[in-house]
Amino acid sequence: MNSRTLALLAAGMWVAAGAVWAHHNMSAVFDFNNRVSLSGTLSKIDWRNPHIYLTVDVKGDKDDVEVWQVEGPAPSFFRLRDISKMDFENASGKIVKFEASRARDGSRTGLLRVMTLPDGKLVSACPQNC
Amino acid sequence: MKKSAQIAIVLTASVLAAGLMLVPARGFGQPANDAKAKAAAKAKAIAQAFEANARTLTVFDRQGNAVAAVGPRAIYNTPVFSPDAKRLVVGKTDLEKEVQDLWVFDIATGGSIQLTSGKSREVSGTPAWSPDGSKIAYVGLRSGEYGLYQKASNGQGSEELLYKLPGVGTLTDWSQDGRYLTYHATDLGGGILFALPLNSGERKPIEVFRSAKQVQGMRLSPDDRFLSYASNESGKFEMYIRPFDPAGGSNSATGRQVSDQGAQGMGFWRRDGKEYYYLGADRSIMAVSVSTSPALEIGKPRVLFHPAEEIAVAPGTSSVSRDGERFVIAVPPNRLRQLTILDRQGKVVKTVGAPGVFAQPAFSPDGTRVAVTRNDPKTGFNDIWTFDVATGKGYAVTNDVWQDNTPIWSADGKHLAYVSTREQYSGIYRKAWDGSGQEELLFRYTPGAGVGFSDWSQDGRFLTFSTGALLVVHLRDNEKALDRKAIEWIRDENNEFGGRFSPDGRFLAYGSDEADPLDFAGSGTVDVYVRPFDASNPEAPGPGPAVRVTESGAQIFGWRRQDGKELIYMNRDFELMAMDVTTTPKFSVGPPKLLFKLASPQTAVSPDGISRDGQRFVFGMPVSPPASAAGR
Lengths: 130, 632
Fold this sequence. Notes:
The complex is a heterodimer of chains A (130) and B (632).
Chain A: H1 3-11, H2 14-21, E1 30-46, E2 53-59, E3 65-71, H3 75-80, H4 85-91, E4 95-103, E5 109-116, E6 122-124
Parallel strand pairs in A: 3-5
Antiparallel strand pairs in A: 1-2, 1-4, 2-3, 4-5, 5-6
Helix pairs in contact in A: 1-2
Chain B: H1 2-10, H2 15-20, H3 35-53, E1 55-60, E2 66-81, E3 87-94, E4 99-106, E5 112-114, E6 123-129, E7 135-142, E8 145-152, E9 160-164, E10 170-174, E11 180-187, E12 190-197, E13 206-211, E14 215-220, E15 226-231, E16 238-243, E17 256-257, E18 263-269, E19 275-280, E20 285-291, E21 297-298, E22 302-305, E23 318-320, E24 327-331, E25 337-343, E26 348-363, E27 369-375, E28 382-388, E29 394-396, E30 403-409, E31 415-422, E32 425-432, E33 440-444, E34 452-456, E35 462-466, E36 470-474, E37 486-490, E38 496-501, E39 507-516, E40 525-532, E41 547-548, E42 556-559, E43 566-570, E44 575-582, E45 588-589, E46 593-597, E47 616-622
Antiparallel strand pairs in B: 1-2, 1-24, 2-3, 3-4, 4-5, 6-7, 7-8, 8-9, 10-11, 11-12, 12-13, 14-15, 15-16, 16-17, 18-19, 19-20, 20-21, 20-22, 23-24, 25-26, 25-47, 26-27, 27-28, 28-29, 30-31, 31-32, 32-33, 34-35, 35-36, 36-37, 38-39, 39-40, 40-41, 42-43, 43-44, 44-45, 44-46
């Protein structure tokens, strides 16, 4: 338990403690030292707690489509950075570039580090996901 | 191993990033309808967070006597002595600017200079001094990328990137001959120790040691022949020493264990290489005689001193001088609490047992016992305890090597459910109130994910917890714990916390920031909402909209268990408020009435600290520590 959580418990702020615990230890699922940089069509947005999910259709080497699931931080993370759900909705059906830490199980799943939206807006999930 | 649980949380993004996420005791209270009100609410939240986390840099001698307090209170981490022990470099978090920078303090005068000046959401941390004290190396997070940097220790000039890290790294030392920086990358997938040669043309790190377990805190012996580190390879954290092979062959060598009763890390070599220090599992400052030539010899560990219980020394907030004569600890706010029972007017009725590091005090259904999360000073671990109200006698419900928290009583008072984090998994377990018998796993969540456990229904059939979403677990008979799935009862873009079943099981109350979203930087409000809960169809809330029952924020709340006719909550100003509840023809509450105000925001409170009849409240009241800093 880190000092933040301990302080929360000591003060009894279970509400805030819930917020602390909301964050997965991403290293259990994703390898921070194994990154992938891809571009593709943003096809689906799941804008919910505790983590948003973005689906990106990436064109493979043989013109087939690889469907990538990109996990991002909570919606509140983006609110703090003046990035809204609308920014992603406006990018739906368009090409986005992203860098993610790959899932340890080798699936086409990644933990979002940065994404460049079609209008050039750079969305960073750091430091939380970096 | 509880240490791994700590690491699991801290390393979510990185040790450094965690420093920026200090958002405790945050403000959930003021309606923030305009920019001015929002700014005021944020300032108040930041002030509360500061009070809950601010530490004092305190220097101790080998006997545990406090010999100096350095600089003002602040949110510090990783203090490190300069080679001559006259200065300290330390990470300092600015909550308002959302940045962690490094500062250098003169121990004698308390004067300081700001070494780094990061932009918002940048981090500088885990510093190490060059052997001559002229430079400081550190890990910097710059534009989303981690790197090893160095800068002159007098703050002059600009920082220099030494090596761009491919991922997260924690710098641990600058070898005493100046040839290497050592760092580690460790997470739930294992760990790697690295040494970065500084004198070669191309800076390419040496992978010194790789383990499927967690490894951290690598430091080279003064002669560069050996490396020390902490690892949980035996099932609990211990300190190890193994030969250092600059060619990267250390994996094939045999490591030797230094500690004999567990360790928390923080291993340091004395300048002459003849003594080695680490933090014991029980938070004692340990010393071991060592020799690296002609062969490695390791003596028996001995206690130098044991810091007082309330100091809560930890590897990331303490270090040792090169001469082994001084120890610095970033001492946190006093954590000692006295379990205290108050009546509805806030008058003290009784104290229970002796002070301890307690959190989440919860009354048993008959009010004769109190369950708490207790931090054990002998192990540093959090366990679940119960105390008899009449006699103060304590019972260890758990006494294990995991981090346990959030005790919640069964309706019959015979068992407690609690959260325990075990390596990659957090789960909810059940055990008898006196610790007898075997514990039972009720539910295990997905790897790496925390569980904000908040209630166990009175009929014993449902658990609820939060992850930002609000989840429910149906405890069906004849279903194995590992087969149980969490139901996403409410999952949307709002933050929902702390579900509480009504005593009759027909409603679920919860906190939500729906009306004024939290931004985790000091703004936002959590209010209490109630929705119907249908035990025959627990997949989603029952029909009808959520009823918002508080309007200006709540920090905790609970039902009067006896009849469910009262909801009691604590507002942002630490006032206990009570509302009458009506459930027919529809759910509604009366106006809030002030019961009393808590004297200290640092009081340990819990939604289950309300007696069934709503007449008594149990809290952990802050108490003053003894005058001496050292425990023995």
